[in-house]
Structure formats: structure tokens, C-alpha cells
């Protein structure tokens, strides 16, 4: 069953208090706009100006199912609150389809971040200070479609993986880290800082640790600040958004290539059926399987797949006809 609801968390609202206005209502109105904007950024590949244009046209309240407020504070001059907004995904999907907006709602794989910083010819991972690591600690790791994880830096982490191990892509070390944190992907984020005449230049190289591949970041930019820590935090946020876009874009392209079929599968026993079902569920060529009917000798299933030829070849290779 597809997920019908989703939440956008950690929306911090603060403004000057006005006794003539309902502060909570104003805070909720602002949080609804922020929630819808963030979600559009996550699940589409629309540019910022296109998202702003959409927000001007839609009534965000129609897509909201509820909210929760934490740390609400009133002072003589200010109102502040931390708000979670719940979204109706069925209404959002229908809006996307009716307006021909490409989207992908499924969350990305659990991805472990290894933030290595290089400064003055020294590479740092666990040692203090590592402002690149600190930037990922400051930002909410659940604020994206991708489920980012950050290592805790316990003693066994320090023993398992050093900055040099990460830079040299020592495969078994990286796999051990992924196993500990139950991560499906490991991103080694190498940030090099160069200082020239008082200005900082940041260069980010990204490697998919388990695949041992460099990730190409085209059209990637971040807001530069005079303050180094702010620039690094902006870079972390910009990369997280870009990584979401890559995930969504890849899956939109994959879905555009999918085909659909009703397939009758014959078998001689329940154990044969379980073997067939297990194979189909684990197939990289299938994205969806739905059992429509079954008996003691056959089953009819509805499947979504990428390549008919590859599917038939894989089935025959496993003696499934």
C-alpha cells in the first residue's frame, strides 16, 4: 500500500510579537508555506523560481492534514515555535498529475555521511576541529528525501575508519562502517579549504564509497559567506538538496521506461511458488509486484518492469516459465 501521509519536521518560526494579531495562526500560515516548499524541493526537480510560482497559485491549506507545535514561546517582543506539518500525499500526487509535474515520492536509501576536511595539507575526520562534520551535526539529517546518517564517532568508529582510509577507499573498512550503521550507501564527502588573501575557497569532491565511484555534481552552487562556518553549512544544505534532486531525477527517468503486464506463473508446489515470489521480489528489473489471484498450481500477478527481454531471460535462467 502506498504511503498516504508525510511530515515536514523542524520548521522554526520566529517573528516580532503583535498583540493585534493571532501569533499562532500567523506561525501556522508561515509553516504551511515552508512545508509545501520544502516538500516540492524534495520530490520534484523544479527550479526555485518555478516552485515560488506554484506557491503563488495554490492554497497550501488544502494539502495539510494537521500539525504539532513544540517549544512555543511568547515574550513581550517575540513569538517563536518549532512546528511539524503533516501533508496529504494523495492530494499532492493528484495535483502533480493534473498539472503534468514530474515527481517521485519514495524516500532514498539510508546513506552514511563521512565528512572529511582537508586544510593546509592535513586531512581530518574525527579530530577536533572538523567544521565540516560539525555542519552536518547542526543541520537536521531528516530534512531531506534521502535518509542521511552521521557516525557517532565512538571509539570503534575511530578504529574502523580513519581519514586516510576514507580518502584511499579502503573497501572493507567502508563496508564495516556501512554494516554498523545499517546503511545502504556511504558517501565520502571530501571538502578542501584553501585560504587566499583572507577569502576561503571550498572545493567538494563526493565519492560513493560502496560503489567506489565519483559522483559528478553538475550545476551545483551554494551561497558563499564571509564567515567560514556559515559557508560550510550552506554547502552542506546545498549538497543535500542536490543529492535529493539526483535521486528524484534518476527515478523519474526509470519510471518513464517502465512497462506493465499481467503474468500467469505456473508451479508444482507451494515451495516452488515461494521460490518464484522470492526471486521476483529481489529482481532489480521489477519495481512492483501485486498478486491478483492464485491457486494451488498457478498465480496471476501484476508487475511493473524495465525490460521485457531481461525479465524473460532472468526467469528462464531460474527455471521459471
Provide a descriptive summary of the structure in words.
With 321 residues, this protein is of the alpha+beta class. The protein contains ten helices and twelve strands. The protein has helices at residues 23-43, 48-57, 89-98, 131-138, 155-160, 163-167, 171-180, 228-256, 270-282, 308-317, and strands at residues 5-16, 64-74, 78-88, 110-119, 122-124, 147-149, 185-196, 199-208, 213-215, 259-266, 286-294, 298-305. The strands form three sheets. Strands 4, 5, 6, 7, 8 and 9 form a six-stranded mixed sheet that branches. Strand 4 and strand 5 (122-124) form a beta hairpin. The longest helix has 29 residues, at 228-256. The chain is globular and about 75 Å long. It starts with a strand and ends with a helix. The relative contact order is 0.09.
How are the secondary structure elements laid out?
Layout: E1 5-16, H1 23-43, H2 48-57, E2 64-74, E3 78-88, H3 89-98, E4 110-119, E5 122-124, H4 131-138, E6 147-149, H5 155-160, H6 163-167, H7 171-180, E7 185-196, E8 199-208, E9 213-215, H8 228-256, E10 259-266, H9 270-282, E11 286-294, E12 298-305, H10 308-317
Helix pairs in contact: 1-2, 4-8
